[in-house]
Amino acid sequence: MEKVRVLNTMESVLANEQNLGSVICGDMISMTKKLKNVSASFDVSRTIVRYQGTDGNIYYGIIEGEQVLQLASGFAEIAQGIFNYDGVQVLLDDVKILIPVEPTKVINFGWTFAGHANETGGTANLKEPFLFLKPQSALIADKETIYLPPISLTNRVELEGEVALVIGKSGKNIKEEDALDYVLGYTVFNDVTARDLTKSDPQFTRGKGFDTFGPIGPWIVTGIDPTHLKIVTTLNGKVVQDGNTAQMSLRIPYLISWISQVMTLEPGDVLALGSPSGSCSMKSGDVVTVEVEHIGKLTNYVK
Ligand code: MG
Q1: Distance from the CA of 192 to the center of ligand 1, in angstroms?
Q2: From ligand 1's centre to the CA of 299, what distance in Å?
Q3: I need a surface site. Which of 24, 175, 219, 223 has the fewest CB within 10 A?
Q4: Residue 279 in 3-state DSSP?
Q5: Rounded distance, CA 87 to CA 67, Å?
Q6: Facing residues of 19 across strands?
Q7: 133 CA distance to ligand 1 middle (Å)
Q8: For residue 110, how far is its CA from the centre of ligand 1 (angstroms)?
Q9: Where would I find the beta strands (DSSP E) of the chain?
Q10: Of all residues in the chain, what percent are helix, strand and coil, respectively (each to 5)?
């Protein structure tokens, strides 16, 4: 890696543009070309992963094939479109993938798909979203374990495969027409739910908030169109959910604008956009995978 030029800022990439011919590493040139394309609207598709490296430290990186280009940038910089490559490449298989962000809040929208609204006793929201918060302590990463609470607390824990968006810049009272400018990218979410408790409790806090009830990841993908993303959830390899964000009853910019009238959205905040039909219960030993088109697969084990 010594021969790889370390480019510390996007500005330095641009300043060094004339020297690119002398950069030996092809991957570095590829990376440099991509860095030059960074724009505030994140219209370039990038896959941003947060992981624990082989040295034990936590990094962000950009995935290219089977490699991760390690960044010196933290989330605050990345959210502003600053990707400081630190000159190190690692194999994706060699790192432990972590939750992609540490949000100040996880906002979940419910009943944005008619099928799931109907199967849980409601109707799709056509104007006022139905929403709840999940604590950050519920979040787990790809390949981590969903722990079922004791049977004395709940006897019906269900999966809900969803698309989630990650906020990239702070916003309050966001106009609908500007809303997507506040999105860094998209990830996969499993809104694990103790269905008996969401029916019996006056609030969703307990039924949605157990530790490990928020699988998220494995990474954030920028620059994709969120309006036509296929969502497929499998339980032990069998398809149980097969939906598409095109079926949503409320538009994503509307949801962002609507919630921003209530609370300030901060970089890293997560908005889970709701589940299509097919939510079903999970038991110990199960393996659940939520796959979203153009993003990837989120797999978790149930215990
Ligand atoms: Mg949900």
Answers
A1: 8
A2: 17
A3: 24
A4: coil
A5: 13
A6: none
A7: 11
A8: 5
A9: 47-52, 58-64, 67-71, 85-91, 96-97, 106-110, 130-134, 139-140, 145-146, 157-158, 161-167, 183-190, 193-194, 214-221, 230-235, 238-244, 270-272, 287-292, 296-302
A10: 25, 35, 45
CA of 195 to the centre of ligand 1 (A): 11
DSSP label of 265: B
Tokens encoding 173: 């009272």
CA 126 – ligand 1 centroid, Å: 16
The helix (H) or strand (E) run that includes residue 15 is helix 10-15
Contacts of 20 (CB under 8 A, 6+ apart): 29, 32
ω before 150 within 30° of 0 (cis)?
no
Handedness of CA 241, 246, 251, 253 (dihedral sign): positive
CA–centroid distance, residue 232 to ligand 1 (Å): 14
What angle is formed at CA 196 by the lines to CA 194 and CA 197, rounded to 5 degrees?
Answer: 70
Is the CB of residue 265 less than 8 Å from the CB of residue 253?
no
pLDDT at residue 279 is higher than 70? yes
DSSP-derived 3-state class of residue 276: coil
Q: What is the pLDDT of residues 154-207, one digit of tens each?
A: 999 999 999 999 999 999 999 999 999 999 999 999 999 999 999 999 999 999
Tell me the pairing of strands 96-97 and 157-158.
unpaired
**Cβ-based neighbours of 103, under 8 Å, separated by 6 or more:** 136, 139, 166, 266, 268, 269, 270
| Chain mean pLDDT for the chain | 88
- In the block, which residue shows the tokens 């890696």? 1
Domains and CATH numbers, the chain: 10-97 (2.30.30.370), 106-302 (3.90.850.10)
pLDDT tens-digit map of 258-277: 999 999 999 999 999 999 99
Pull the structure tokens for residue 141: 């990463």
- The amino acid present at 220, given as its one-letter code, is I
279 CA from centroid of ligand 1 (Å): 9
